[in-house]
User: Fold this.
Amino acid sequence: MPAYEYTCTNCTEREVRITGIDDHTVICDSCGQVMVRQIDVETLLASYSRQVAQAERTS
Ligand SMILES: [Zn+2]
Assistant:
């Protein structure tokens, strides 16, 4: 099973959890809110900056 780093959307707690490949979110132990897998956040940001760069080239 792979281990991923999750960041809480509420209290900014970070935690490495061993989860399935499709477990994009887990529940925070500290506050009970949703934690987002950090690699997903970075992937989203990377694809967003690629779109911005493409938009700047085509305009
Ligand atoms: Zn939390």
About this structure: The chain has one helix and four strands. The pocket of zinc ion is lined by residues 8, 10-11, 13, 28, 30-31, 33 (CB under 6 Å).
